[in-house]
Amino acid sequence: MFVAAPFFAHLAYTAWDRLAAGVPGPVATGLWTVLVGSAAAGAAMAGLAAPVLRAVPLLWRMSQAGALLGMAAALSGLHRAAQIASTPLMVAGALAALAAILVNVALWTTVVRRWCSADPADSAGRLVQED
Questions:
Q1: What is the DSSP string of 6-30?
Q2: What is the pTM of this model?
Q3: Do 62 and 50 touch, CB atoms closer than 8 A?
Q4: Is 58 exposed, middle or buried (0-12, 13-18, 19+ CB in 10 A)?
Q5: How many helices (H) and strands (E) are present in the chain, helices listed first?
Q6: What dihedral angle (degrees, nearest 10) is formed by the CA atoms of 72, 26, 14, 59?
Q7: Contact indicator for 34, 21 with CB cutoff of 8 Å
């Protein structure tokens, strides 16, 4: 999750750069949404990366919600990039989407769910599957 945060920061910066370059009024609102959403998603991913290691169910669910917010921000960035035909925004959105997909897969897999529901004292033992 720490690794995904810079991708969302780059998406927010690129959206801000497109706003500074000047865009039509209806698109500006969408770019502000991308800017705020990607900044919030990056902050949520960076902020919730350490608590998810303690596997408190509420923090783990908040991490999943942050990852879904990141996916929405990345897809919104891709949509806005297509609207204004901005290659830098398209690249930033694609990288953020890839990072969001990786984080979502990592947070929603069976092994992670089993690990997060385990007692911290024996969490290492639960990850090893015995045949």
A1: HHHHHHHHHHHHHHHH---HHHHHH
A2: 0.73
A3: no
A4: exposed
A5: 6, 0
A6: -30
A7: no
Burial of residue 17 (CB within 10 Å: 0-12, 13-18, 19+) is middle
pLDDT at residue 123 tops 90: no
pLDDT at residue 119 above 60?
Answer: no
Task: Give residue for tokens 């911290």.
Answer: 120
Q: How far is CA 99 from the centre of its chain?
A: 7
19 Cβ contact list (under 8 Å, min separation 6): 28, 31, 32, 35
Q: Letter for the amino acid at 77?
A: G
Domain ranges of the chain: 5-127
Alpha carbon distance 54, 37 (integer Å): 26
Nearest to 4 by CA among 107, 114, 83: 107
Task: State how far the Cα of 49 lies from the Cα of 60, in Å rounded to an integer.
Answer: 9
Note whether 55 and 118 are within 8 A (CB).
yes
